[in-house]
Structure formats: C-alpha cells, structure tokens
Amino acid sequence: MAIGWQQIQIHQAATVSAPVTVKLSGWGSDPIEQKLLKQVLKDFEGKHPGIKVKYEVISDQYMDVIKTRLVGEAAPDVFYLDALEAPFLMSQNVLEALDVYITPEFDLSDFEENLINSFKHDNHIYGLPKDYSTLALFYNKKAFTATGFSFNNPPTTWDELRSYSKQLTVDKNQDGRIDQYGYGVIPELARQAYKITAFGGQLVDENGYAAFASEAGLKGLQLVVEQYQKERSSAQKSDVGTNSGSEMFGQGKVAMVIEGNWAIPFLKETFPQLEFATAEVPTINNKKGTMVFTVAYVMNKQSQHKNEAWQLISYLTGKEGMEKWTGTGFALPTRKSVAQKLGYDKDPLRSPFLAGVDYAMPWQAGKYPAAIMNSFDNYFVSALLGQQPLQQAMQRSQQEANKLIKAME
Predict the structure, then answer these.
(1) Is 228 in the same domain as 297?
(2) Does this UniProt record's set of keywords contain Transport (predicted)?
(3) What is the distance between the alpha carbons of residues 372 and 217, in angstroms, rounded to a whole number?
(4) What is the mean pLDDT of residues 253-271?
C-alpha cells in the first residue's frame, strides 16, 4: 500500500507541475519574421515556466480557417486578427473582451489611440494591436536630383505631386517609350480609401453599406484617374511588368510611390544601391490623410486557458515583448514609449510613418469588407483604364457590393 500511495503522490506532483499549453495561430510571413516570433515566444516561455506556446502557421485562407474553427469550437486560444476583419468577429460574440484583464500597470494609454479604436466594439476592447504601418511617400533621390528637384523638398500637396510627376516622367532613350514614370499608382481600395474621405465622402455608411460613389467620394478618385489618363505621368505595376509598388519603385520604373513601412527592409535588401527617402503622404484638399493597417492579438471566448492566454497577449503587447518584436524595424510598435525607445520617431525613413498614425484612416470597411473591397478594385481599374466613366463604374461597384452585403446579412 505504501508503494501505491507513493506512486499516487508522484502522479499528482507531475499533474500539478505540467505546463499549460496555449495555442497561438497566425498567418505565414517572411522567414525572418517567423524566426523572430519564435524567439520572442521562447523568451516568454522562459519567464513563464508554467506555460508552453504551441504556435501554428495557417498559410492559406486564414480567416476562413479561423471562422470554421470558431464555429466548431476548435479555434486556438490566441490568434492574429487584422483590423479589416475585426468588425465582423467582434459582433459575433466569439471573442473574449480583454477589459477585465487589463490592469493600470499594463498602461493601455501607451498605445496609439487610433489603433486601439480599431478593436473596440460596444465599449469593450477585443484586441491589442501588435504592430502597424501607415502609408508614406517614397521618392528616388537620384531621380529628383536629375530633374532639378532637391531631395530635401518632396511634394507636400497632391497638386505638387502631380506637377513633380510630370517632370519626373522621362523617355531616357528618346524612343517614344517611357522609361521612368513620375508616380506609381496602386488602384486597390486599401490605397485609395483616404482619397474618398478627403472631400467629405465615406467608404461605408452607418449601416455598413458601401457609400463611396457619392459626389464627394468621387472627387478624390478623379485626381487619380486624371493623372493616369490625361497626364500619363503615373503607371500601374502591370504597365511596367512588376509585381508590386515596391518593386516598380526599386527597379526605377517610377520615381515616387506611396507604400507601407514594410517596403523599407524590402528595398534595402533587394535594391541596396537605391537611394531613397520618405515623407508624409501629400495633402489633398488641404487635409492630411493616409491609411493605417494593424493586426491585434485576440482571445478565443471558448478558450479553456484564459488566464494563460492573457499572460501571453500581455507579454507580446507589453513593453518588453513589443520592443523585441519590433526592434528590427520591419514592423512599427503600437506603444508610443517603445517607438521612442527604439528611436523610430527620429529615424528619417520611419518618422513619416509615425507622424501619420494620428490622422490615418483605419483600414476597415464594415462587417463585410470583402464584398466592398473586391467590387471596388474591379470597377476602379476599369475606370482607370478608361473602359467606363468613373461615376458609372463606382455606382455599379457600389450597387454590386451592397447587393452582396444584403445577401450575407
């Protein structure tokens, strides 16, 4: 009997000391990012010996997989949530509200308010943003100098950008073909939404329906169409045989482009000889504007390990964990104190991105963003190419998007 009792005690001790496993899911990304995240998670486990993190990469159809698992009560304890997808999930009662876990020591006020607001619903916070990027103007220093511009004086208004673009558009070989366009345009809604609001338009109305085809909304988009069609000083990536805005800029096909912070490490690594600078996005209608893209850590409401899940979230979005995560510069910290500690507010290349976060438009489009985004992208490209008038294209796009939304409600 003594031996049996001793075995029971050993079993109980093992049970008590066995670490809790918290499941974390995210999407696939750059191998360097994956390696860094695994190191940060290892650091977390070192400080929390009672918790193990099982990290899973969902490389394809991320949100479809997450939604399916949430319905089947098989979702991870903690997972990435893009601000674009947040309004729908926050309305479905599947996320744990984080308010009750947040203590004064966590210092919520340290976060950029514009980013926290993207994950608020019914006065509750459902996600803590792990990093972000706004958009900024990238410009080629050598192209500026060759045209007679000072690279210390980038365009600050959209009218100036168009004027610069005309002079930066050159036929280097005098063969009738444009070798360098002044500006690289990316027609997707994610890069055009702030232009819709510049003259008082809105992307969606208070009921979540597409509303971008208003007269005010079209004014901002008309600037893009005029530059592309009439002035011919801008080009899409398909016009110059590249795969992205960063690539057409890096290859010298365009002298200016509006891109995210992620373009900085890409350009430095892929085009090390390129001399470039960044600036805030030029104003439109005397208003500053840009987009902000952010991703949060959220907790599954059905998690069986909520306290441990919170410890993971609070470490990853706390000052120490965030400094480790954003210290290499490929992502910007959502905490103001971390950005200052890392010197990003003084960094010539990154400071324009930080400057834009207060006035940026969050990349959100109601509860059914895919319907709005896909419809806009298809029709706006047709307007840009001159296949149909802008007003007609946008009205058709809006009608199509709202038809899809009504079918999903």
Answers:
(1) no
(2) yes
(3) 14
(4) 96
